[in-house]
User: Which sequence fits this backbone?
């Protein structure tokens, strides 16, 4: 509603962080590392040492009802603080704690006024392109297996 | 009296060494890699993740390799592993309605909105062994077509709009979500606990129980309303971050079984439902799960509950293959003392039997 709120408010910052986290969680650790190598990463420290753990995954009864516990998944998390004070968090499925740390580093940079443009352009955006290309490829392969029903027309006589 | 069972250490050590050797097999044959197992035995990996109750492809592949392909042993290994890590919490419930579907079929509506999408399926294959696969087979690249932007709503949502099917039970916000890994199982169990139990339950056991309902032991007239497989996003509300963070996506299979009606003098008749959900591509598992879920709702729906699949205590107490194998296989462990006492009792009974017979024979002879 309010143009100043939507572009700079806390909600839009959170949406931007979440969008970046989605791309990073979907990307392979090696790809993130490759992109990070292309930018000047500011000095930072671990606020939480990267660690492995579990989350209980929940589904919903009937797909849309009350939640139930489906089973666990391995997950990694980390938190870093830039020398300029921004704190970033990294969470990802799997046991690659270094990937979680790189996500945390990116999240911290996304929050930094000076760095967010560069991290978006040189890390997040190219990874997003790769993620979307992968999704499109799968969607196109899947679409070829869609059934086209047709009705046989009975001949006269 | 306790009889110490000692002296087996050397034998055990050598047995495990022999096992490692046998596991490797002929050393002239290349060793199988975890990536090969994960990529080429993918459905086995999916089953180990589902019944091991841990989504981690690499660990499930390692478990299959270590277990020499014994699925229940692999599931056991995965279950044991999960006890070594702390749990950070529970995810937000996944939204299967927003799944990026790779397969989606309905046996109830030919022209279901979003279409029938076969995906990579064994259905319609002729089940003839393919000698080409024996070595060096390079499959064609998959066909592609323009992806439709049309939504793929759940079939149950479509039926629900007209009130033709019961709605899913909604959450009681005060009630915590039951978790059988944290609290011991009590009966009667709520549906959340039943679904958790079935989700990690043995596929073969659930398949047999589901089949039994079709053959008349607790019949409930099922239709596969919809089966879908694909990727869903997972989010986790992290306290330190202050919002639900994306963790990435997982592959899931979901089955919505549509079953015969219920109704009463105050409620119009409508279809009932059974639900199945599992990690990876687990179609047979989720179909079986949905059949058993529906069967276990017998009491709730006022049906006579006489068949095994409708007996919640029977089903839930025997569905877990790690528990089952633990108790069955414990029979291999030394029972020397137990057996000695049984043997002593048996000898005594036989002696009494012999003496009684002798007495009868002497009496008969005397008469």
Assistant:
């Amino acid at each position: 509603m309010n143009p100043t709120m939507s572009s700079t408010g806390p909600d839009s910052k959170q949406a931007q962080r979440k969008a970046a986290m989605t791309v990073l969680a979907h990307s392979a650790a090696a790809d993130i590392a490759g992109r990070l190598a292309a930018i000047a990463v500011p000095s930072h420290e671990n606020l939480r040492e990267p660690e492995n753990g579990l989350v209980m995954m929940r589904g919903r009864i009937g797909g849309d009802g009350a939640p139930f516990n489906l089973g666990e998944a391995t997950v990694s998390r980390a938190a870093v603080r830039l020398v300029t004070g921004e704190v970033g968090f990294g969470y990802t499925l799997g046991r690659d704690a270094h990937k979680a740390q790189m996500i945390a580093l990116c999240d911290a940079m996304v929050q930094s006024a000076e760095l967010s443009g560069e991290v978006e352009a040189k890390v997040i955006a190219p990874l997003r392109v790769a993620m979307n290309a992968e999704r499109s490829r799968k969607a196109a392969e899947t679409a070829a297996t869609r059934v086209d029903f047709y009705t046989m027309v009975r001949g006269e006589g | 009296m306790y009889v110490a069972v000692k002296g087996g250490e050397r034998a055990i050590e050598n047995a495990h060494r022999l096992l490692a050797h046998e596991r490797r097999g002929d050393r002239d044959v290349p060793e199988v890699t975890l990536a090969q197992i994960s990529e080429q035995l993918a459905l086995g990996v999916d089953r180990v993740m589902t019944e091991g109750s841990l989504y981690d492809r690499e660990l499930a592949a390692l478990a299959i390799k270590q277990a020499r392909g014994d699925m229940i042993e692999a599931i056991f290994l995965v279950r044991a592993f999960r006890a070594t890590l702390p749990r950070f919490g529970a995810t937000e419930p996944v939204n299967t309605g927003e799944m990026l579907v790779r397969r989606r079929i309905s046996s109830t509506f030919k022209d279901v909105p979003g279409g029938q999408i076969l995906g990579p399926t064994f259905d319609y294959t002729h089940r003839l062994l393919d000698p080409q696969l024996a070595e060096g087979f390079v499959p064609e690249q998959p066909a592609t077509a323009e992806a439709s932007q049309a939504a793929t709503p759940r079939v149950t949502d479509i039926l629900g709009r007209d009130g033709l099917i019961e709605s899913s039970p909604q959450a009681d916000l005060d009630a915590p979500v039951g978790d059988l890994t944290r609290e011991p199982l009590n009966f009667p169990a709520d549906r959340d606990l039943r679904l958790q139990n079935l989700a990690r339950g043995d596929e073969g056991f659930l398949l047999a129980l589901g089949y039994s309902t079709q053959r008349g032991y607790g019949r409930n007239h099922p239709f596969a309303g919809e089966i879908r497989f694909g990727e869903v996003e997972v989010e986790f509300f992290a306290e330190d971050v202050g919002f639900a963070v994306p963790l990435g996506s997982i592959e899931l299979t979901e089955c919505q079984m549509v079953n015969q009606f219920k109704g009463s003098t105050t409620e119009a008749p409508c279809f009932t439902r059974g639900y199945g959900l599992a990690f990876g591509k687990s179609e047979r598992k989720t179909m079986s799960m949905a059949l058993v879920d529906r069967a276990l709702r017998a009491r709730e729906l006022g049906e006579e509950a006489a068949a095994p699949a409708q007996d919640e205590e029977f089903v839930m107490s025997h569905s877990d293959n790690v528990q089952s194998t633990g108790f069955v296989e414990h029979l291999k462990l030394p029972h020397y003392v137990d057996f000695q006492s049984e043997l002593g009792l048996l000898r005594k009974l036989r002696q009494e039997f012999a003496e009684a017979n002798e007495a009868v024979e002497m009496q008969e002879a005397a008469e």
